[in-house]
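Record type: monomer structure entry
Structure origin: computed from sequence
Chain ID: A
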Amino acid sequence: MNIALAAYDAKKTLMQSFCIAYKGILSKHDLYATGTTGRLIEDATNLTVHKYLSGSLGGEKQLEIQLESNEIDMVIYLRDTQAPSLHGTDVDSLLNLCDIHNIPFATNLATAELLIKALDRGDLDWRELYKN
């Protein structure tokens, strides 16, 4: 499955820790990430990550294009709701596309862990049927 990973600056360390903890599961899938987040994940885990541009330089738009084409099966986008962000409207657009294509979308660690464990159990295998 194709998994997209992104994180606000204040959540990048949390994303690294998440990827370290679930490296065994993530290694079985194709990972996509915005530029900085992708490099941090690769550095922390040695996983291969297809990197978009940095989010603010167009990486979120690149992810949006893949979502529009229904090429991503799950999005984990760790947000920091306590900090003002320039990403707000982009996240809304991504979430809307996920709703249109029935793509699971996590914005916090609790939901991300539920999705990654469901992925490991095969609970998200229906995405393969849905895409075809």
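Annotation 1: The first strand starts at residue 2 and ends at 7.
Annotation 2: The chain has one domain: 2-131.
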